[in-house]
Amino acid sequence: MTTVRTAIVIGGGIAGPVTALALRRAGITATVYEAYPETANEAGGIGGTIALAPNGVAVLRTVGADEAVTAIATPIERTAMAVGRRRVDLPTLAGAPPLRVVHRAALYRVLHDRAVTEGVPFAYGRRLVHADQTDSCVTARFEDGSTATADILVGADGIRSTVRSLIDPAAPGPRFTGLLGFEAVARHEVDVEPGTMTFAFGRRGYYLYWPEPGGGTRWGANLPYQRPLSLVEARALPAAQWLDTLRASYGDDDPGRQLTATSDADELQVVGALQIMPPVPHWYRGRMVLVGDAAHAPSNSSGQGASLAIESGVQLARCLRDLPDVESALAAFVRLRRARVEKVAARAARINHAKAPGPVARTVMPLLMPLLVRTAMDPEKTVAHEQRYVIDWDAPVTADPALR
């Protein structure tokens, strides 16, 4: 039985509220501390759409948030790949529920509201700057001079995590993928069945699209760019200027030309640099531990970033619930998570290399697509182990490295 009774959770995005909910279910009182002065979905114009894989939705059931999330999400039943005018349907994973795409701000709100309903306190405008540890507790120190003390501190503070640097000042930071992210809803209606997501390889960049419920087509672009731009830097340029760039980049593509031409600058979501986390050597030190993007942020190509973050929050709670001391619990948590998340990240990295094919590859890809679909894109071999993954909340966690 755990000796942990209280927790400080840094970050109110996706991983933070889920972790706090799971900890509460494990009998641990958690408070979420958010750097922004309001809920994360309201702060800084955070937007864009993210995907929740079947395994992510399944683990949300553990904290009672699955129905509320699926109610605001769009199910994606089918996927296809297009290169030029050649299009091929991709095989689906037999028996798996659909992928769910959901607006990031809406997801933040649903998870926040679920946590509040369950009695999880949130404190806003609390930017972590330091933490002090003793043998029995950890004290968080915030920029405004306030402090908080608990048995453990959980860093759910994203890819630019402050907690990661406190655990290991030499820890690697995020790496730029060479791509900038954009998203919009076009007035153009694509001629595909609703619930179909298409992955398109344009002449100058990769993009994807699907019919938007209620009309139009939602599309996202991964635009090759020579240097990383933070969200602030990317949004410092007028959205109309970015839209002109996207129109020039995708103007030779069908339907890229129509999608960019019928989108409005004032509705363009500028996401900024798409980044990934390289392997993080140390996920915990003493009474501080990382979850979500702070520890593992695969490329958006994986379709698993949010789902893995949710999984990690629940697994951490199980380990703290079942193991008698913090060290054994956090060691078990890393053992349960590291191999899985790094395998997903490696698969996504391979996909990233194909997002901007050269002229020769673009010529060959349409010819090879049917073969690739039958072999290299077999979902039973590529994603079954990811999407069918289920966390058994009721199963006890053991400290034995040979057991799960």
From TrEMBL:
Annotated organism of origin: Micromonospora profundi
Family matches, as SUPFAM superfamilies: FAD/NAD(P)-binding domain
PANTHER family: MONOOXYGENASE (PTHR13789), PUTATIVE (AFU_ORTHOLOGUE AFUA_6G14510)-RELATED (PTHR13789:SF309)
Gene3D superfamilies given in the database record: FAD/NAD(P)-binding domain
Record carries keyword Oxidoreductase: yes
Domain of life: Bacteria
Entry keyword set: Monooxygenase, Oxidoreductase
GO molecular function, one term: FAD binding
Tagged with keyword Oxidoreductase: yes
Protein name: FAD-dependent monooxygenase
Pfam families attached to this UniProt entry: FAD_binding_3
Stored InterPro entries: FAD-bd, FAD-dep_Monooxygenase_BioMet, FAD/NAD-bd_sf
Residue ranges of every copy of the FAD-binding domain listed in the record: 7-177, 282-347
